[in-house]
Amino acid sequence: MGKGQRSQPMYSNEIIEAPQDAGKLASSGVFQTVPASSSSLLGHNDIEYGSVAVSAPAETKVQTAPKELPHEKPHEVQDIPFFTLMTTYMSFLLLVVLAHFEDFFGKIFMPKQYVQVRVQNGYAPMVSDFESMWSRHVYARMRDCFNRPIGSVAGGHVDLIDRVTHDYNKSFQFTGKLQNVLNLASYNYLGFAQSEGPCADKVEEAMREHGIAQASSRIETGCSKLLVETEEMVARFMGTEAAIIVSMGYATNSLTMPSLVSKGCLIISDELNHSSLIAGSRLSGAVIRVFRHNDTRDLEKQLRRSISQGQPRTHRPWKKIMVVVEGLYSMEGEFCNLHKLIEMRNKYKFYLFVDEAHSIGALGKRGRGICDHFNVDPREIDILMGTFTKSFGAAGGYIAGSKALIDHLRVNSYAAVYSEAMSVPVLAQVSSSMRMIMGEDREHALEGQQRLDQLALNSKYFAKGLKKLGFMILGDPGSPIVPLLLFNPAKMPAFSRECLKRNIAVVVVSYPATPIIAGRVRFCISASHTREDLDYALEQISDIGDLLMLKFHKDVINQDTKKLK
Q1: Which value, in Å, is the radius of gyration of the alpha carbons in the chain?
Q2: CB-based contacts of 128, cutoff 8 Å, min separation 6
Q3: Rounded to an integer, what is the distance from CA 52 to the centroid of its chain?
Q4: Which stretches within 321-397 are classed as H helix?
Q5: CB atoms within 10 A of CB 13
Q6: How far apart are CA 216 and CA 138, in angstroms?
Q7: Out of 4, 191, 408, 442, which could bridge 528 as a Cys pair, Cβ 3.0 to 4.6 Å?
């Protein structure tokens, strides 16, 4: 039974054959170049994109990707100071106690402010006071740090629309002013979020030729020539037989997974998978089990136990088993253990679903994502998912795989049958940016590769800079997402506001998006950032770290420096 889990087809009336032993990819290792100069291919006055030029490398190094990532947590997480850990727990406990205290007396002395959480005319409240306590007493205190409106393209720099509050973040008033800030908050990894340039010109041409939208689902009259051509390009880019495009990134997961698995199937999911994967798993009706983040040993335990015991109560063999992971985890900046996952897939015969929302376009020397980064044949993965909202500066997502799989999704996936087809401007943005990455745009044949190289250099430079300053950061080397741990809930709004004072836009993240003690600021690095931008950010973040006492490894670094001297 353990060897026969894939004998059931991935979907009804179709059989997916096990991938043949295709040849290894021609290239191997992670491409590294010497640091780039500050000269810009598009000019220094290009605020939207910034510098993309890479100086001619004096030496090209080939580094073999690790076959297996460590199972243990990163060293930085293991070294949390006891005082920091205790004060973080005490801070959250104090917030909860004060929230209950305020609600108890508020309902007595200020009943009008609690109308929305009380029974009114026999109707129960939409949200109870306990359910809304977190948003009313924790999120409300730092509401000014989120949903900041912008007034320009979200490139390397962005204009924030200034606003003020006079009632403790309950409402905001616009001042009419704009504040130009360094953008370390957007997923604009390759800098394609632009209002001018070759991609913007292609979008304008496509709108003049094809209009704005088809006003229909693709299964009716929304399957345009541009859509078909873009899907074929995505398949070539991913190295798979076929691909299907969905107009919304979240729906690419949540509305596709129910057409792949159903009742009698098993989904084994990483505990830190994205909300869209969780929603799709629940909609499918399959049994869901969770394994510890990036821990393939725990995954193997789950597999062995599930295969040996079978379905609950009946103990019949599972119809299908699907393991769901992400290529690059957006809150941790960590890569999945792809080599080990493929080894286990071949051993236990489960289907492997890899979400490449953040890794596609941002990892690998050719920008092909996690498979390119680890030099893995994409055909060894059953379902490859990704989005266009990050590296491509567009919207929507895709599913890539075998032709039989994609043909099934075209007529069975809710996203393909019931949702609208992707609009013309978005399709044009996707195709033009992807052509540049692939080097198929003759007028800009080198620009795509320059952006990829610049992103890799910027990511490593910024992460190393934070480590040298003594900050506690997460993530694997080369990740464009660099989380810096803040821990204490009071330090999250303080860090965000201090960055804004210094004209830097960042995103702070806390529970429930992260573990309760692991509040963090998440820096998103882009190819549009110049070396001067990153140096300025590191300088200001260092000052903020001293102010908020965030340099937990400063003493260790000082000791190492003394030893070297």
Answers
A1: 25
A2: 117
A3: 23
A4: 338-348, 370-373
A5: 6
A6: 42
A7: 191
Backbone φ and ψ for 53, nearest 5 degrees, come out as -70, 140
Beta strands, E only, 461-564: 481-485, 504-505, 507-509, 520-524
Best CA proximity match to 465, nearest among 367, 518, 533, 414: 533
- Tell me the C-alpha distance between 335 and 373, whole Å: 10
Tokens encoding 457:
């250099």
CB neighbours of residue 463 within 10 Å: 25
Please list the residues that pair with 246 across neighbouring strands: 397
For 64-115, the pLDDT digits (tens) are 444 444 444 444 455 788 888 899 999 999 999 999 999 999 989 998 888 8
Order of strands across the sheet that contains 504-505: 157-164, 173-183, 504-505
How far are the Cα atoms of 32, 55, 190, 450, 535 from residue 36, in angstroms, in the given order?
Answer: 11, 5, 15, 10, 13
Peptide bond into 111 cis (omega under 30): no
CA distance 184 to 59: 30
Element housing 354 (H / E): strand 351-355
Identity at 122, one-letter amino acid code: G
* Residue 374 C-beta-side C-alpha neighbours within 13 Å: 24
Cβ count within 10 A of residue 93: 10
CB 244 within 8 A of CB 411: no
Handedness of CA 110, 112, 113, 115 (dihedral sign): positive
Exposed/middle/buried for residue 203 (C-beta within 10 Å: 0-12, 13-18, 19+): buried
The number of angstroms, rounded, from the C-alpha of 343 to the middle of its chain's C-alpha atoms is: 25
- Tell me which H or E stretch contains 536: helix 531-548
Binning pLDDT at 50, 70 and 90, where does residue 561 land?
very low
Find how far residue 508's CA is from the centre of its chain.
15
Please give the torsion angle defined by the CA atoms of residues 404, 407, 413 and 415, in that order, rounded to the nearest 10 degrees.
Answer: 130
> What tens digit of pLDDT does each residue of 355-408 get?
999 999 999 999 999 999 999 999 999 999 999 999 999 999 999 999 999 999
Helix spans in 479-530 (H): 491-501
Tokens 């098993």 map to which residue?
A: 266
List of residues 6+ apart from 366 with CB closer than 8 A: 27, 372, 437, 452
| Element of type H or E holding 512 | none
Tokens 């009698």 sit at which residue? 264
Q: What is the DSSP string of 60-109?
A: -EEEPPPSS--SSPPHHHHT--HHHHHHHHHHHHHHHHHHHHHHHHHHHH
Nearest-angstrom CA–CA distance, 371 and 19: 15
Q: Considering the entire predicted model, what is its pTM?
A: 0.84
The dihedral sign for the CA sequence 415, 419, 420, 422: negative
Neighbours of 212 (CB within 10 A): 10
Residue type (1 letter), 513: A
Compute CA distances 253 → 293, 330, 563, whole Å: 19, 16, 51
